[in-house]
Amino acid sequence: VHIQTSRALMVISLLLGFFGIIMSVVGMKCTRVGEDDPVTKSRIAVAGGVLFVLSGLCTLAAVSLYATRVTYEFFRESTVPVNARYEFGSALFIGWGAASLTLLGGSLLCCSCPAQERRGQQYYRQSQPSTAREYV
């Protein structure tokens, strides 16, 4: 049962990460997908960050659930010899690293929301003043 639960959590994590990537790309300021309003685009990027955080939590839960089960089986007294028991493999450490990086990236995207006083402000390019131009 624990393997099926871990597998389901990893599939959910992959789907959340996929939709997080799509929403983050749409929410980037350099893309022309969606609206041109920077506030709306930043909200879309924050929603992508939330999806990344949820994906990282699902990955962390799946890997930790499996690691807990491996630890329980290893220290349980049974008739299975010590050399035939499961141990932590590199996949668990890669899973923990991936979960932490996904959580970090999602939290950075969540911090990209503009400040409250700048929400309605538009960004305009300033032209050079007329005194700075040289006439020949």
UniProtKB/TrEMBL annotation:
Residues annotated as transmembrane: 6-26, 46-68, 88-111
A Pfam cross-reference name: PMP22_Claudin
Keyword list, A-Z: Cell junction, Cell membrane, Membrane, Tight junction, Transmembrane, Transmembrane helix
Compartments, as annotated in UniProt: Cell junction, Tight junction; Cell membrane
Superkingdom to which the source organism belongs: Eukaryota
GO cellular component: a single term: bicellular tight junction
Alphabetized GO MF terms: structural molecule activity
Its membrane topology: Multi-pass membrane protein
The protein's name: CLD19 protein
